[in-house]
Amino acid sequence: MDKNKENIEHEIQEHEIYEQGLKDDPNATFSQCKNCKTEIRKKLRRCPYCGILNPTVTIKEIAITMTVVIVVMYAVSYFMK
User: Would the pTM of this model clear 0.70, i.e. be above it?
Assistant: First the structure.
């Protein structure tokens, strides 16, 4: 029971820190979390509401990153011959 209470207190503290950060940075860009659909900062590592990792990363961003990595790997292997 104590661990559950500690987890809840920790989540409340994280949420308060997140809310304070929103007030401190008026130029932050926002997007919806893909899991809980809450408006959050674009570059957060974890959603402060539902806890999902990389809540705003889209398939398009993943595809672009993978394409760049493959092109760089191909270019390096081509010039290493």
Answer: no
